[in-house]
Amino acid sequence: MAIVVEFLDLAKWLALATLLAALLTVLGFRLQWGIRFRLVGITGFLGVLVVGSFALSLGLYQRTEIPGSIPYSLIYDTGGTQVVIAVKPDVEPESLEATLRQAAYNLFSSGRYAQPGETQLRIRARTIIHPAPGISQPLYLGEVQRSLAVRDDQNMAVSIDFGQFQQLQQYQETSSAPVQS
Fold first, then answer.
1. Who's near 106: CB < 8 A, 6+ residues apart?
2. Is the separation of the CB atoms in 54 and 6 below 8 Å?
3. How many angstroms separate the CA atoms of 114 and 133, rounded?
4. Hey, which of 53, 74, 109, 157 has its CA 20 to 30 A from 142?
């Protein structure tokens, strides 16, 4: 949040410098100074800097950190209403809920494409297990649904699939069991 304020402060100072340069440009034209056309360029360039720094103060992406969340990888996101993230197989339900909330905040964008009538962004979390050599099975452990229109959505619906967690736990128990010969 501090960098947004810094860019806004920079835009204010650059706007003042632009006004000063514009006044000098007008004065240069009235007094027929030899550098009057250079002053036009300087004023224009300062105007571009003002607009750019103001735009950066509006559009910088802020990541949200939720305590207890774990790292995730973005697997599927086409800018629409469906997103899939991947988590490691050793995830716990509590940390998955925090991770889903963090992903919901970080993946929000007001520019997401939605079909008419769709108002929710759905983010699903999955992990991959390998029940046999050469076989990979995705397990969808949970999902969060949030508003496409409201950045700070207080009505996020987080659901954890405890049946999939039981299957994941059974897989971890059988894969860590010693092999008898």
1. 63, 64
2. no
3. 39
4. 109
Cα distance between residue 30 and residue 12, in whole Å:
27
Which of 59, 87, 104 is the endpoint of a domain?
A: 59
Please check whether residue 153 lies inside any domain of the structure.
Answer: yes
Greatest pairwise CA separation for the chain in angstroms: 99
Q: What is the mean pLDDT of residues 28-44?
A: 96
Calculated CA dihedral for residues 141, 147, 148, 153, nearest 10 degrees: -100
Residue 56 confidence (pLDDT) above 70: yes
| Best CA proximity match to 107, nearest among 139, 66, 138, 140 | 66
d(C-alpha 87, C-alpha 22), whole Å: 55
Contact 26, 5 (CB under 8 A): no
Same domain assignment for residues 161 and 91: yes
pLDDT value, residue 181: 45
Phi, psi for residue 130 in degrees, rounded to 5: -125, 85
Task: State whether 22 and 103 are in the same domain.
Answer: no
Q: What are phi and psi of 39, to 5 degrees?
A: -65, -35
Tell me what the pLDDT averaged over the chain comes to: 89
